[in-house]
Amino acid sequence: MGLVFAALLYLPGMIWFDNQTMDSFFRWWVVHLWVEGVWELIMGGILAFLLIKITGVDQRSN
After folding, report:
1. What domain range includes position 12?
2. Strand ranges (DSSP E) for the chain?
3. What value does the mean pLDDT of the chain take?
């Protein structure tokens, strides 16, 4: 489901407008949403790694 919803973010960028301003506006939103989403995933991974290293939690699952 996540991949389907992520792919739906491309739809506003595929709408063709006669007005260049509107066209650029929707493309900007598509890029902005992807960058924000990827940045949160990267930061979540870094934070999880740091918390495991700092707290000394065992990485193995029993």
Report:
1. 2-55
2. none
3. 82
